[in-house]
Amino acid sequence: MASLPPPASTPVPPRCTLTLLLMHEVMRHVARGGAPELLMREMLHLMSELLGLHHGRVVLADGGALDPHMPTARIRLAYGLTREEVARGIYAWGEGVTGRVLATGRAMVVQDIDAEPQFLARAVARAQLPAGPLAFLAVPIECGLRIVGVLACHRGAPCERLLEHDLGLLQILATLAGQALQRHELLLQQLTRTLGPPLVRAYLPARLHSAQDLERVLALHDGVQSRAAQALGLTVRQFSYRLRKARS
Fold first, then answer.
1. Domain total for the chain?
2. pTM (two decimals)
3. How far is CA 108 from CA 47, 200, 210, in A?
4. Beta bridge partners of 101
5. 93 with 61: CB under 8 angstroms?
6. Could you tell me the residue range of the domain that residue 225 belongs to?
7. What is the pLDDT of residues 29-80, one digit of tens each?
8. Cα distances (angstroms) measured from residue 26 to each of 43, 142, 151, 169, 220
9. Alpha-carbon distance 65 to 96, whole Å?
10. DSSP summary character for residue 222
11. Are 72 and 90 contacting, i.e. CB atoms less than 8 angstroms apart?
């Protein structure tokens, strides 16, 4: 009896390949740590360039993750928006689609922005967007047990991916963004306990900074030595020298 040939492997749909590539790159950034802004910028970039989820933006409460009870929130990070468009992206709790997600903590999907009266088109004017049906996806960003922001984007039509697929992806990315914000908040709290509240008293004299202090201040300022040095009242040369000595 002749043996049957092995079943042909099923090709991976391009949408799955691109989604996996996006997640691979995002998780690389997560593993590296660093400032949450760097991670979220990369998310927005990959969403647009790989999956066509354009005009991505991260809206955060005024006061940041440390104070989510401010009356307004605004676009903090975006990809594909001009400075003027970003500046217009200010929302009160419950206002429009973005404000409603902030207020309820629930994701919203607008399948056709032209048919949704709650969609404000405040940041990007409708005339600047492609003609035809255009969807808008918005998911909450949670830091601990608090809703501190929204991850949102536009999605054109037609699209080979299911709308639920992109919504699920955004929810995963928003979870990672919230975790990054929470880690940053904990780092800031730890730094405050170590060095004292920076708005109450100056940082410790340079001679009292431990290696751990230097590393924490550097991490708090996104790895930029000039900013970390300024925060500690040092020149860049002094900070660089102390950091090299501490790491040696």
1. 2
2. 0.72
3. 18, 41, 47
4. none
5. no
6. 202-247
7. 898 877 888 899 999 999 999 999 999 999 998 864 444 455 789 999 999 9
8. 6, 18, 15, 12, 21
9. 21
10. T
11. yes
